[in-house]
Protein 1
Amino acid sequence: MDTPVVAHDRSELAGVLPEAGVRSAVVMTMGALHEGHRALMRAARAAVSPDGVVIVTIFVNPLQFGPGEDFERYPRTPDADVATCADEGVDVIFAPRRDDLYPQGEPQVTVDPGPLGRELEGAVRPGHFGGVLTVVAKLLNLTRPAYAFFGEKDYQQLTLIRRMAADLEMPAEIIGVPTVREPDGLALSSRNRYLSADERRVGVSLSRALLAGADAGPSGGAAVLAAARSVLDRHPELDVDYLELRAPNLEAVAGPGAARLLVAARIGATRLIDNLEVQLSR
């Protein structure tokens, strides 16, 4: 097992990027790596083959945290993260310092996520997706990959990154990877470690609500939402931000076929999100 090369600034990164003709893939993370991140790394390796280069970025991006959110306490586990990347055969870790990624302070020019960036997560966390897309654009420009892999757990984020890449002619192919879950169904997230044992048991209700909604798909969209809501309503500890059914591109559902059921809720001081594909028969 080889240890990945760790680059902390632009010059170090430039010195280890692959030569022209060598395929590369990037997995962008904020660290505190778990099995969901491992799945992204494995997908990246499969895409570029053993001869290609897999890059993992680790950066807790201040631009995407709003006032009162968990930027300061967000879990940071650098030694464990390097070991995880080594296990998965990652070639390069880019772990920039804040001053290196934003050398002139908070950027004055950022990426506007458009109307979708102000809905769902964007309505609850104003400015969040502008911060996400800005750092993703910077990291794509710095790493110059052929492929970039993102998890479907953050489905709205994935949708917006795909739209940004298409609208701005970014050459990297944006690839989504299915959500990885605990055996009981809880979607893996670095924030799960905030949960107490009791809160974690309540948190599983998000995935159960999604499954109940999916089972109601043959009865139509209203039935999907009603079935999911009935599960959430059993847990008064949950403070639900939204439960919505959207088309796969997160526009309004237009009719039968694939749709996406999305939920976000707070449990104590922790906020969790989840989503699931639903097949509507009518």
Note: Strands lie at 5-7, 24-29, 53-58, 92-94, 147-151, 173-177, 238-246, 257-267, 270-280.
Protein 2
Amino acid sequence: MQLLEKFSINPKNIHLYDIAFLHESYSYENDLNECYERLEFLGDAVLDLVVSEFLYEKDRDLDEGELTRMRANYVCKKALYTYSMDIGLDKYVKLGAGAELSRREFYSVTGDVFESFIGALYLDLGLGSVKKFLSKTVMPHIDNGDVFFYDYKSELQQLSNQDGFSIVYDLLNEEGEPHKKTFTMAAMINGKNYGTGVGGNKKEAQQNAAKEALKNL
């Protein structure tokens, strides 16, 4: 695999890296009992750990809240998509012959496989190898101060604390298959809908609702 050569990764178990790019549609068509999703779950946790440690060591003056907000910026969907596209992981994804991804699904899958690759690397060669890989793919973005994600919910909450109004996020709609759900949330301020947001999970939908609420306020 050219990707492994590019990052000087000498695998012990090449099968793990094959799994890291198996979309569920490919697994279903080929009667396989595994796809990248379990590795994605693991990679997500490992990425959070390594980025958290890097931020913790980078600036000792940051408090817990600031560290949390910074980490959210560098592990959000847009960030994962960017890291993945930077090194061409989208080219390795194996889809079923009849599978067609929407633009949103392509965006999501491309980010997912960055985490699944991390999961495979962690299981195969350990945390040290993951840190070396992330030092070349993620940490430069942190050093550059790149912004991928703005925490609209925190800004709205801060405004709420200052002005004394209450915010509740209500789920308006939930649709789609279990692994491809779309959520619609409303930012309710003192019982009134100030903004509606849609996302692939509730947190994303809440952020989009908060963004609209801030505009309307």
Note: The longest strand covers residues 167-175.
Protein 3
Amino acid sequence: MKKFRLFCVLTALLPLLVSCGNDSDSPEPVSQLPAPASLASTGDDVSLTFTWEAVSEAKCYAYRFNEGEEVYTNETSVRFEGLTPSTQYAFRVKAVSGDLTRWSDSEWSSTSATTGETPQPPFAITLGEVTFYSAEVTVTPADPSMTYFCNVLPRAEFDAFPSEQELIDAQIAQITGAAELNAMSFEEFCRSMGLLFTGTQSFVTAEELAGDTEYVEYVFGLDYSGKATSELVSASFRTKPEPTVQPSSMTLGLEVVDLTDVSARLQVTPSTADEYYYCFFVLRENLDALGEEGIINLCLDDLNEHISSSDYATVVAEQCHKGNYTFSYAEFAANTEYVGFAFGVGQHGLRAAATTRLFTTEPFMLKDAAGGDDPIRIEVVSWGIENAQIKFIPTSEAVPYRCELTKLADFAGLSDEEILAKDMEKLWNDYGDYYSMMLLNESFTMTRYMPLDPDTEYIAFAYGLSDTEFKATTKLCKVVLRTPAAEGSSVGVRTLGLLRR
């Protein structure tokens, strides 16, 4: 649209300027131009176009839209965009004279028009979390009963289709071909593969996406006969850049403490508290045979095996540590040299990778077997709310035996003899003639996987029990422990063959 107000005024004044020197001529009568006829409107939900018939002798037209300012145009139509759906707008137009000695401006021609309603798309696509390899997508159909198909394509492949209809046709043809290849009807194949959906559905992209790449999620109505029932609706997103592990300057201080004949603790002190690391023990001969890189790769292979069925964040949070940490282990062999080790762990794509070299302790051997008067030795390997390991080591006179960990309050005020009698009564009531299946014949490390109650006393106990008659063969052996008031989670690490020859 152009404004011609100045042009129109100058054009109208030109005859007057020319006739100023001729006062003897009588002025001709001035007539009014007719108002623009056939004023009409067309439009959609966000635009309106007004048209009218041309007026003879008019040099331009003036119009006002919805009581706005007066605007001039030489055209016989004007279009307005960016309007509000379902809203009424007023419009008026008049013919403007170019010769005011003969014609005056016309009266206004007026009308009103209403924009249409915004058409509702057949589907709404909502994007959730987008990572470097996946995206969460929720599809909500306008018609909950409609069956539909949805998929994701890289933007380049999506744009390669000349039109959305050709993409729909190609997708249907692909499904049809796969159904024929499997000697199935279109419906049978779609139902067997779960290709069509109804109602609101949330998805996580099934295939691994490439990092830092634009993708298009698209959906269209499709029935079980292979007929498209709606237009295609799409939403684009870009994946995050793929994580690349960087070498870390973190150092790890290691110290082996609390050596017994079966257990030891590895105290790890990192130089930074915000990076993950992996720690464990290894047979010295295995370290010599595999080398530092071999040990790191063996541990990473195990981590990545877990990650393949879960995700990096979950597995590393369970199997690795940050900050100061003490790792306990109680399955060592006698007269054997071991080495404690640790190395930094970071994320590289979907996998875990090393961020530091391998840090190791000096080789160590366990102490000689400890004696004692108890027929069953109870050693607390680790103790906490979410990480409790207790090892029971029987002498020959205590085999077979029973062991348990429970709240001390269950035996409040009872003597050792009464605790043993109460536990045997419970064992018989719960298992009857099958109680012997609960008995152990060798050393056993009890690992508690369910969190314990904080700031609570527990009792770990064991006693010999005959497997031929329901009779205790030793006295009660026990250890009383109290859990801390609060503690973060800690999960043990698998042996990975590092402690086996």
Note: Helices lie at 5-18, 155-159, 164-181, 186-193, 284-308, 312-319, 416-431.
